[in-house]
């Protein structure tokens, strides 16, 4: 009961903070960056090791520069996610553009549902609110729920306020089948670390063996829904774009891991272009492989 009460209080204060103008929140972000980077040194060893292993040809000076930019971005992402709690969908839409939408329009004009792969890059949270304002299809976003039920419910409602439907990962296939007569756009995190029991395999990603979730590929093959990748780019502070790129038109005709390797490769290209805006503080390589698919 005490924990539940504390959660409610924390949620209330997060919502109050979200009412501040974004400019003031970025001042708060600068303070958060200082605390994370210089005071508590939050997961700095994890971040630097991940960067060093991913970019073996970069100098320590280059890696330290990326590390510092990453923590500044991470602080921005924190306050931007808080802002999402009270911001109107239209406010976020002005700061989040979707490009190459002709690819999506083609599927929607044929009343064909499709799957979207997206990475933990840039601001993927705002995407959950902006997407329903732009697409004709109903966005179904596959996610892993938070451990705290109160926070999970609170953030779920914030993400769903413009029409997105958040679906727990274990219910993904069931929900897609249930809505097979509807026009849907099902969104998967392409770089999610597979949990024990998840459908997974191993491939090379950022110069190291990496476990990858293959649920998207399995669903693509079973439904034959085309797959696209949402290439998120940070335009400048508080502004993002998502460029849709084709991954596969006919999944049923593909070889094993072909779809997975393609959307992971597209994410890798984005990270190589601008490394600082991926989630480096995540322990992405905590599991070691027995076999790697090249």
TrEMBL record:
Compartments where found: Cell inner membrane
Keyword Membrane applies: yes
Transmembrane spans: 12-40
InterPro entries: LipA_acyltrans
Chief location category: membrane
Keyword annotations: Acyltransferase, Cell inner membrane, Cell membrane, Membrane, Transferase, Transmembrane, Transmembrane helix
GO biological process: glycolipid biosynthetic process
Gene Ontology MF terms: acyltransferase activity
Top-level division of the source organism's lineage: Bacteria
UniProt keyword Transmembrane helix, yes or no: yes
Name of the protein: Lipid A biosynthesis acyltransferase
Species of origin: Pedobacter cryophilus
Origin organism lineage: Bacteria, Pseudomonadati, Bacteroidota, Sphingobacteriia, Sphingobacteriales
């Amino acid at each position: 009961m005490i924990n539940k009460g504390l959660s409610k209080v924390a949620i209330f204060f997060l919502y109050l903070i979200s009412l501040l103008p974004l400019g003031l929140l970025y001042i708060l972000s600068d303070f958060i960056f200082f605390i994370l980077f210089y005071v508590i040194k939050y997961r700095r060893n994890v971040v630097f090791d991940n960067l060093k292993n991913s970019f073996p040809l970069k100098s320590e000076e280059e890696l330290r520069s990326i590390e510092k930019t990453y923590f500044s971005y991470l602080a921005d992402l924190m306050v931007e996610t808080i802002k999402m709690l009270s911001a109107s969908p239209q406010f976020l839409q002005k700061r989040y553009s979707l490009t190459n939408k002709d690819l999506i329009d083609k599927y929607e004009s044929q009343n064909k549902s499709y799957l979207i792969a997206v990475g933990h890059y840039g601001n993927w949270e705002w995407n959950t609110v902006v997407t329903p304002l732009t697409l004709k299809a109903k966005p179904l976003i596959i996610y892993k729920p938070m451990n705290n039920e109160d926070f999970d419910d609170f953030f779920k409602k914030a993400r769903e306020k413009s029409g997105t439907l958040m679906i727990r990962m274990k219910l993904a296939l069931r929900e897609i089948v249930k809505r097979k007569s509807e026009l849907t756009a099902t969104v998967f995190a392409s770089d999610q670390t597979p949990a024990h029991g998840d459908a997974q395999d191993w491939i090379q990603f950022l110069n190291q063996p990496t476990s990858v979730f293959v649920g998207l590929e399995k669903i693509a093959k079973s439904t034959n829904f085309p797959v696209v990748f949402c290439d998120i780019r940070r335009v400048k502070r508080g502004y993002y774009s998502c460029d849709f790129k084709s991954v596969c038109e006919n999944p049923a005709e593909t070889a094993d891991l072909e779809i997975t390797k393609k959307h992971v490769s597209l994410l890798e290209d984005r990270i190589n272009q601008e490394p600082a805006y991926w989630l480096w503080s995540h322990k992405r390589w905590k599991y070691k492989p027995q076999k790697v698919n090249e």
